[in-house]
Amino acid sequence: MAAERTRIGLREIKALGENTEVWDTTVSGFGARRQRSEAVAYVLLYRTSDGRSRRFTIGRHGSPWTPDLARDEARRLLGEVARGSDPCAVKQAKRQAETVEELCEAYLGDAEAGRLLTRRGGTKKASTILTDRSRISAHIIPILGQKKVPAVTRADVEAFMHEVAQGVTKPPKATGKKGGLSIVRGGKGASSRTVGLLGALFTYAVRNGMRADNPVQGVVRHADGRRERRLSDEEYAALGAGLAAVALPRPRKTPRKAGAAEPGGMWPAALAAARFLALTGWRRGEALTLQWKHVDLDRRTARLPDTKTGLSVRPLSHAACDVLRGLARGEADALVFSANRGAGTMAGFSAMFARITKAGGLPADVTPHVLRHSFASLAGDLGYSETTIAALVGHKGQSITSRYVHAADVVLLAAADAVAGRTAELMREATAPGKVVPLSGSSRAASARMQA
Known about the structure:
Blueprint: E1 2-6, H1 10-15, E2 20-24, E3 30-34, E4 40-47, E5 53-60, H2 67-82, H3 87-96, H4 100-112, H5 126-144, H6 154-165, E6 173-174, E7 181-182, H7 188-207, H8 233-247, H9 268-280, H10 284-288, E8 295-296, E9 301-307, E10 310-315, H11 318-325, H12 349-359, H13 368-381, H14 386-393, H15 410-426, H16 441-451
Parallel strand pairs: 1-2
Antiparallel strand pairs: 2-3, 3-4, 4-5, 6-7, 8-9, 9-10
Helix pairs in contact: 4-5, 6-7, 8-12, 9-11, 9-13, 13-14
């Protein structure tokens, strides 16, 4: 292949004939070559630190590569070579690197096996892994799945964020089951939360040597968009009406046969769970996975070993205890709010809760989480401090000594009774007066501190 030496410019590129090369006189090893086609490629010849000769293809002439840009890139690559790097080896490693989809599979596999620890040192909960898997399959794999892990840039992440926010991944997708569809919702909130998961994925990639940096760092996300919705007094009354309505027997479409039982209303455990959530402010998952061995009705205390914030001791109001006493008590390991079929958790609770809100004429945005926020808001309305509210509903920031406590103190029990009583009052439900526990001097002092 014929070659000449000159400062490479556009004229030299256009003059290249078939199977010819031209080498630059200003940057050692930088050149351009043309083979049989019309395409011209910019190349760099260099030697590695151990003396091996390498030929690196910078790119083809044309957008974006011009002689000047290619020359600048050659200078940058020679700087890397001087620092001991081998651009050809790096390029080859990128070609053989895992894709983002393979990264996601490895991440989920380690999470499910308990090898992926959270910032608190614990393993990811099954519900969190399920949410992660949903966001990965709905958003991350469709947009970034085929990209190589080292090739993803901050610009790619920002473009991904805007695509999810604009609903690019929103169209329904087949679930694999007959007639099954997955309804994917985009938007700014989903975008922000998914970018957060993407950051965790690339932190995992850095930790496992798949790339040197995290491209999500520095990306400014959309505001989450979470609404801290609370029930109004009228909505509390509507919730009470909805609970009462679904508890009634459903009307029959056909005449009842002689001796046949009247059809019942909602599954009693689901009804009890909804009322319990309104009276306690617990997370839905905490209530639906509650086992009888975690409940001490005499001390009016629930000791939850594995919540979102770790071990949590919760006070139970008299009203909440009445809800639990109305259920058939099972074995120690049995669920308090049992499913109507099988031994697992109540899979259809969301649909049953929606039936309650519909019966009360409540809008569709009233969810179990709204009950939690409403309970905490009522506690604030009654003048309780953030520390007291955190202890009632299991927010972050509880004292580490809670892991050694086996029963709630009278201060928290009184607070639980007050908030539950106000909740029941707004729901137009009558509650039986509980036993008044007089406060000792130390408990009165503790109460004063908590209200301060």
